[in-house]
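Before the break, one more example. Copy the sequence into your notebook; we will annotate it together after we see the structure.
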Amino acid sequence: MTTPRALRLAPRKIRLRKAALAFCIAAACLGLACGPRADEPLRRSVPSRPTDAGLLAAFLGDQGNGGNARRVLQLVKEEGADLLLLLGDFDYGDDPAAWNAMLDEVLGPDFPVFAVAGNHDVARWDAYQHLLEERLRRTAGARCDGEYGVNAACEYRGLFFVLSGAGTLGSGHAHFIEESLAGSDAIWRVCAWHKNRSAMQVGGKPDEVSWDVYESCRRGGAIVATAHEHSYERTRTLADLRDRRIDPAWPEVGRLRVGGGSTFVFVSGLGGRSIRGQGRCHPSRPPYGCGFEWASIYTATQGATFGALFIEFGVGGDPRAARGYFRNVRGETIDSFTVRAEPP
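Here is what the structure looks like once it is written out:
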């Protein structure tokens, strides 16, 4: 039988491959690693597909179903956001119909809303999920693959985002995130879930999400979006999330990068339910404590009111440039920053 030319290997190539295999076996015996280390960026082709220029995304969680929640949604509408990414804990009343009616009333029944499950949504998650999937079907150009709000990879107008139930619902979140990010060629990508690790918020929340989940997003070149703690806080650019190591090439408070093994994390939990104080990383004014990883902190300690984080992608005609800002319902800009997307 004739071996196809594409499958034939010259003797020298065979010897080289045998040598490489022998090296990897020896390395394994010595406890070394062949291939990329776990702390290295995931290897893939360079992401090159942009978002729509000027795409504006709003991020918030911990809503409730009262006047404060409506004011925050009205802010989202007035800012001209193109989509809303809800970070869990919707109405706190296990009333999906009433919560959805609030969205329809303020934003409209066809406004693009995507969401993750929060701990206060679990009891009626099937009903919330059904309403969100109906809205997804009405959103032209939107796509989500997987279990919505738990392990789902989504895209809308070029923005790629993973909706994860990490710490709340489902399992296998880190692996799903890693595989989803590795399979996307989008320049801008976001990991979204509800809960936190204690070190990734400034209130009183315990460790409820594994570091593997956070680090899968960092290595995959994704922004990390969370809520659960009822406040707003944002890190600087971090080259290691577990150790909160600031990227030495991007140490500035207001100038961030995502990719190249670095990212930033934010908590946006001022959606309307309540406001909590700063419990760690004092003082209450910059430069903040702990490891100086926090760029902005806005809690009851700082006199916070409700609001949302906004990120505009593809700023100034540059597909790799973005700008973010947190604005409250009084129209005050509390935090502002720029972001640069680099290959993972």
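The domain at 48-341 is CATH 3.60.21.10 (Purple Acid Phosphatase; chain A, domain 2). DSSP finds six helices and 17 strands in the chain. Try to locate both features in your own notes.
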